[in-house]
């Protein structure tokens, strides 16, 4: 199972939104380079909001800027606040929220002095638990609207150019595609082949906030037929609740002259999409599992994007082979030993002249706590006895906190037939469980 989709669509029940000018370079600047963290197929960048530095998910699939998980940012101040409701993917009711205007957002020398932010008050909406580091918001269209944005997944750097600085950057090494910007979101056309002789043209949202390779909406076209070999899965959590559907492997997708074979596709069910407004002829989304295989330029003003494949291009499309989903559940105090004056450790003696064998001292450190967030029904994890809420203590005889969440997820997608040993805590009891990786598709 691929990692969760954080959010793929968002709209507001509030009053009609006023146009924003977006980000601009400070005087004398024409380029900015922004390093990013790439965790579980999500781009995380540092953003200053009204002088407070926060981590934001950069998401082409979202129009407006959203802030949440504000418990650790009490110093952040907002002005001009009004109450609204927020609706997005998922089956639940809209969320209560706030709209704050006239905010200052800064990313190095790239700044927006009149930015509108939407604040989610529901603390259950927590992206941080799904990536293992604090994430406080989502930044979308307004980052891309004015200038040219280059995303280099190899160097993990974003470069923003003004248009005069950009003209010679792509030359013949990149393939130009037409971007269709609708409702402030980017769409391209691609050829999709569900089966060998079943190819059709599909309008797809480019969605860097979607961790999967591809989403297809089966109700949007008779050409979108879910392959017989599929399985039911939890696809993620949107702004309005959990998203379920099916996963299957299709024959290929072709973007311009780039052919990607055997991608794993998610087919969300109708319950997840019935309450949102989808562009009429849109058939799905291209997610980061595909986008990360390219270096990409986005030029919204000129309705263009530029693709060049990178070293990730030839990787096969894989999925979680266990049915087990693990997430970060905050921090725990852990007692750890350490050597004091290790250089002298072999020459220490007590008051009686006896050599000191153990020079260890102890201290407490905060370490990540991992729990089982979901177990797919009838999966290997289900059959092995895992339950939602299990606390993961050890993996392959190593303390779970010695792993990053990214490393755990990669382990669950590693070699078929591999056996992974778990020690878990459930209802104050310690259990030993064994899990074997098995390819599903």
What does this structure look like?
With 441 residues, this protein is mainly beta. The protein folds into three domains: 10-166, Acid Proteases (Cathepsin D, subunit A, domain 1, Beta Barrel); 179-289, Cathepsin D, subunit A, domain 1; 324-436, Roll (Pdz3 Domain). Helices cover 7% and strands 47% of the residues. It has seven helices and 32 strands. It has helices at 128-131, 141-144, 163-166, 270-273, 288-291, 380-384, 405-411; strands at residues 10-12, 24-25, 31-35, 37-39, 42-49, 52-58, 65-67, 81-88, 95-107, 110-120, 137-139, 148-152, 157-161, 175-178, 180-182, 185-193, 199-206, 214-216, 230-238, 241-249, 252-255, 258-261, 264-268, 282-286, 294-299, 304-309, 324-339, 360-375, 391-395, 398-399, 419-426, 429-436. The strands form four sheets. Strands 15, 16, 17, 18, 19, 20, 21, 22, 23 and 24 form a ten-stranded mixed beta sheet that branches. A six-stranded mixed beta barrel has the order 5-6-11-7-10-9. Strands 3-13-12-25-26-14 form a six-stranded antiparallel beta sheet. A hairpin with a 6-residue loop joins strand 8 (81-88) and strand 9 (95-107). The chain is globular. The termini are close together. The model is unreliable at 1-18 (pLDDT under 50).
């Amino acid at each position: 199972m691929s990692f969760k989709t954080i959010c793929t669509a968002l709209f507001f029940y509030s009053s009609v939104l006023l146009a924003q000018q977006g980000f601009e370079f400070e005087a004398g600047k024409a380029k900015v380079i922004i390093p990013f963290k790439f965790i579980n197929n999500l781009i995380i960048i540092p953003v200053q909001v009204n002088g407070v530095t926060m981590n934001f998910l950069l998401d082409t699939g979202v129009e407006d800027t959203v802030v949440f998980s504000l418990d650790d940012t009490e110093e952040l101040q907002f002005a001009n606040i009004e109450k609204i409701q927020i609706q997005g993917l998922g089956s639940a009711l809209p969320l209560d929220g706030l709209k704050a205007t006239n905010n200052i957002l800064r990313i190095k020398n790239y700044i927006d002095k009149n930015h509108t932010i939407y604040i989610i008050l529901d603390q259950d909406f927590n992206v941080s638990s799904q990536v293992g580091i604090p994430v406080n918001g989502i930044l979308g269209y307004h980052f891309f609207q004015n200038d040219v944005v280059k995303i280099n997944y190899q160097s993990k750097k974003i470069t923003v150019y003004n248009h005069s600085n950009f003209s010679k950057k792509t030359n013949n090494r990149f393939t130009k595609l037409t971007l269709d910007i609708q409702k402030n979101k980017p769409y391209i056309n691609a050829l999709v082949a569900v089966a060998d002789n079943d190819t059709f043209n599909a309008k797809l949202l480019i969605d860097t906030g979607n961790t999967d390779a591809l989403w297809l909406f089966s109700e949007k076209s008779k050409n979108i037929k879910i392959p017989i070999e599929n399985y039911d899965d939890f696809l993620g959590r949107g702004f309005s609740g959990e998203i379920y559907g099916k996963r299957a492997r299709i024959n290929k997708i072709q973007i311009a002259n780039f052919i990607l074979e055997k991608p794993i596709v998610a087919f969300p069910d109708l319950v997840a999409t019935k309450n949102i407004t989808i562009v009429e002829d849109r058939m799905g989304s291209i997610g980061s599992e595909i986008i990360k295989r390219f270096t990409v330029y986005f030029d919204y003003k000129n309705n263009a994007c530029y693709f060049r494949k990178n070293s990730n291009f030839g990787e096969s499309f894989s999925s979680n082979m266990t049915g087990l989903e693990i997430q970060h559940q905050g921090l725990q105090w852990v007692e750890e030993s350490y050597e004091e004056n290790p250089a002298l450790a072999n020459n220490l003696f007590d008051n009686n002249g006896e050599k000191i064998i153990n020079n260890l001292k102890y201290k407490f450190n905060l370490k990540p706590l991992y729990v089982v967030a979901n177990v797919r029904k009838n999966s290997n994890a289900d059959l092995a006895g895992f339950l939602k809420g299990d606390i993961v203590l050890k993996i392959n005889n190593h303390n779970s906190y010695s792993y990053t969440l990214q490393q755990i997820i990669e382990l669950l997608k590693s070699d078929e037939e591999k056996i992974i040993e778990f020690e878990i805590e459930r209802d104050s009891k310690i259990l030993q469980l064994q899990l074997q990786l098995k390819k599903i598709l």
